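Table S2 (continued). Query chain:
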Amino acid sequence: MRAVFIQGQSQYGATRLFIDEMVAAFRRRGYATKVIDIMAESDPGVAMAIAAGTETDLVYTVGILGEYRDAQGRGIGQIFNAPHVIQYVDYPFSHLVRLQGTPRQAALLAVDHSHVEAVRATFGGDHFAFVGFCPHAAAGEPVEPDPDPESFAAERPLPILFAGSFYGVEPLPWKDEGAGIRGVFDHALEIAMSAEFMPALEAVDQVLRGMGQDPLDPRYVQLRRYSTWVHEEVRMRRRLRLLEAASKAGLPVFCVGSGYEGWIEAHKSFRLASAMSLTDTAALMRRARVVLNANANFGRGSHERPLTAMLAGAAVASDHSTWWAEQFVEDEDMLLYRWRDLDAGLARLAALAEDPEAAWRMGRKAQAKAAAAHRFDNRVDTVIAAAVAARGHLCDPSPQQPRITAFSH
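Corresponding output:
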């Protein structure tokens, strides 16, 4: 059994680390593995052609190369004569050009159930060979648990750690569209922001229905896929709202990421470290009592940072998602705050950060669950199942021009 893994450029090295972790997990399952780093190859096409000379059971990428075609117009699956499994860790429509160029033979995995539904709703349930849910996995190894609350407090000088880029207020991405389109997206954003969580596509569909239109009308296919505009706007606005509310409450937050310069100076209870790799961030989590997370507007899915923080022994606070609630016991395994009652959630966060015994107890419980059920070894079966489902679809009916897009988030 052989699996090929292809990795490219990645912000904070996140998806490269995901590939490394998945490779190790497949090796533990007895697979022979081949890793192709297209950032290190002078000619990635040649490297893939050489690797394709050995029989392969599946090819795995994280968000990239769905749209790639070689000089013969073949996609990844055809080049390797093996299923191409693409794991999306962002909202899939945020990579719309790439997604629309992906051959029907591919298998897609998404980290939120609503992302799966969005792809099926706008492409058709049988457009791709397989579309399914596969949540994030924790990166790194479980740390040795602190033996007692006193050791926990002594070894963890950071009361609250927030790891993520800063997004300020930017012009709306639909500002240059016509009045009718602007109206649709303005209203959809208002609807999504007023809910605890609403998938962006559902918000757009609500607006269309309110206009007396059928969202399934073929005229609206592309407009609905641009629901990514709403998704990204909600994600950025809520992250900013979280940080500003935490600052107003005087919470001692240590931020790690890019984009804070010019904003953080006015927030006296905040501290900033320069942007660092996900590997280094995971190590820093071992110095934190609580890791604060904003779940990237994945209200029915996962995010990597809470799971990684759990392995690091920290307590975790994140906005509510149905997946978190299914996997972990609220207020025992993790703290879940609500956007519609953010001040109350931040008050609970402050209390947790000031109570080493409660944070220690929460961190220990969460670490045990994350180590048992949420590592990359626990995702291997889902990847294999997606590949098996796609095996009978190795013919791409619509080859495109050769192209490599190596960047992923």
